[in-house]
Each structure stands twice: as C-alpha cells, then as structure tokens.
Amino acid sequence: MATNALKGFLQPWYGGLEDPEAAQQAVLERLLASYARTGYGREHGAEAVGSVEDYRRAFPVVTYADLEPPIRRVMAGETDLLLPEPPVAWGMTRGTTGQSKYIPITPPDLEMRAAGSRVLLNYVLRSSRDDVLQGACLNLNYPAQVDTVQVGGQEVPRGYSSGIYARYNAARSNLRIVPVQEEIDALGGHDSEADWRSRFILAYERARQEPVTMCIGVTQTMLRFARFLRRRYGFYPKKVWRMQLLGCTSTAGIHSKYKPALRALYGPAEVLEIYGATEGIFAQQLDERPYVVPNYDLFFFEVDTGRVIKMLHEMRRGETGSLVVSTPVFPRYRIGDLVRCFGAPYYRCIGRERPLARLRYALERLVYWG
Predict the structure, then answer these.
(1) pLDDT tops 70 at residue 364
(2) What pLDDT, on the 0 to 100 scale, is given for residue 97?
(3) Average pLDDT score over residue span 189-197
(4) How far apart are CA 298 and CA 90, in angstroms?
(5) What's the CA gap between 215 and 178, in Å, rounded?
(6) Is the whole model's pTM more than 0.90, yes or no?
(7) Is the sign of the CA dihedral 48, 54, 55, 61 positive or negative?
(8) Burial class of residue 134 (count of CB atoms within 10 Å of its CB; 0-12, 13-18, 19+)
C-alpha cells in the first residue's frame, strides 16, 4: 500500500490525538444525531443536547444489565428502540466474565470496525516494513457466524466479534487471511476442545505452505494454538513461519505477562496491542511504548474515577478509572474495564472492574515490571 494511502487511512486517528477535545465534540454531535432517531434517544431528549454537560444530564451511565431488556426487544423486532437502522449482525461475547452478551451491529458500527487495521497499517508506516503486507495473516479467530437471529422478519447472522472483525477487515483492507473466515465458520460455533482441535488443524493445514507474516486476534488463542502445534506436531509456530507482527487483543497485561511467551513460541515478532471488545475497537498501540492510544475520532470516551466523571483525555498521569464509552449503539456505556493513564495519550486497560482489581494490578507491576 502506498505511503499516501496509509497516511490518508490513519489521518483521522492522528488528527484526534492532536486535538482530542475537538474530535470528541465532533463524535458527540454525530452520535446524538443518530441517537435522536431511536426511541431511547428521544426518551432522553437527544435532539436538545448541545454540550457535554447537557449530555451527562440527559443520558445516564448504563451497564449491559440496564440495556438487556431493550436489547431483547430489539431482537424481537423493535429495532428503532435502540438502533437508527436494522442490524447487519449480532456480536456475542465468550462469557469469560459472566453470562454471554449480545451486541447489535449496525452498518456505521461495522464500518468503524475497520479501526482493527490501524495497528497494522500504522506499524507499516512508521517502520517502512511494507513487506509484512505481502504475506498472509494467520487466522485463529472465533467463528463470525454461529447462528442467526430473527429480527423483524429478517435472518441476521450472530457470531463472535473477533471473527466478524477478521472477515470485515480482510475485505476492507485486501488483507489475505488463512484460512478464510468462511472455512472457520463452517466448522460450527461450539467451544469444546474437539472444536478447537478442528479449527487449529484447519489453520495449520491451510497455512503451513503459506508465507505467513502476521497473526492478529485473541491473545489466549494464539498461545493455545502454539501449544497445540507442539503437542500434535512436535514444534512451535516459529519453526513454520517467520512472523513479523502479532496484533494481540482481549486481555490485560499483553506486554507485561504475555509478550515473552508469545515471542518464545512465535519468534522475535513485533508484539502490538489492540484494546477492543465486542462493542468496538477502542484503542491500539501507536509506537514502541507498551500502551494503547484511543480512537478519539470514532467513540466518545469518559472515565469514572470514583470521585468524578471526566473525559478520558482529561485524565492525569497515574490516574485510574472505569471506562464509559458511547458507541453508535450504546450511549454512555460502562463497559466494566479499568483504564490507567500513563500520560496522554497513552493508556492501558489494567483489567475488569472487580474488587481488589487495583491491588492486583499493583502486585503484577512489581512482579512483571520490577
């Protein structure tokens, strides 16, 4: 991909970092126009909101538990209750932190998932390693379609966000993924050891003769696949492919806890972090520093420090709080993650919002960072 094309694709992200306040105001205006087309938005007076302060007064901070009843009504056909247009897919969580969640994905929301490519294309631009794009991406993601949901008389696919990202970003960026997502989906959506064995065999058989240069996806699945290769075939991925980049997501502590293991299994690849969830891709690594940088041009970010709710970009170095994000679907959504500021624009998700989470993070810093 040409340098100018890379810069053009990444400029909205870079521009948001240069002036986060202006970027967040623009995002809020765009979101409010969308919310005003929904029953939930009209109920909270989205059309009359003119400032961040108005937004906070009009819309409460909500959790998935708060939104689950209207989500079920959307699934039953009342799409305009939460959505300005019918969903094109439903994302589902793995239920690792409790009961599975089901997240509707609208066309604008799906378009925003192209942010998953930013970590790769930014790396290519800053390192001048465009050869990484000449190879294939090893696809270890979850199925993009497990089943379908009847919404307003239409069959809408439901699957895991990692597979949905893989399918959409591959098509959007002309990235060649091996195996293709449709082959993974065809194996079914179950989560047993036998199901993962089938997926991993498929991945190895399809990719073993390919010039694989990267793998982007769930960190735990990358580790699981490497150990599967060792058990079944007697070697680790580094003996098969010359990985240049590992784009890792879906867990805290990627650089502190998992990077050494990933490099031991996959070779001396660049390990880059992506912070995302089924609800969206919120941030990714910008440079060599082991932090993520928000997509201020796509989402509206607030943080609850326990004393006050402020904008994410207003956090001070060393401050920690619970992330509140407004997406095309969910206004002021408390996602349940704790984030820590390392000096704007650098942040890290330190884990789920649970009792003793801050103490656990402090202990892990002592163990892994010294």
Answers:
(1) no
(2) 55
(3) 91
(4) 20
(5) 10
(6) yes
(7) negative
(8) exposed
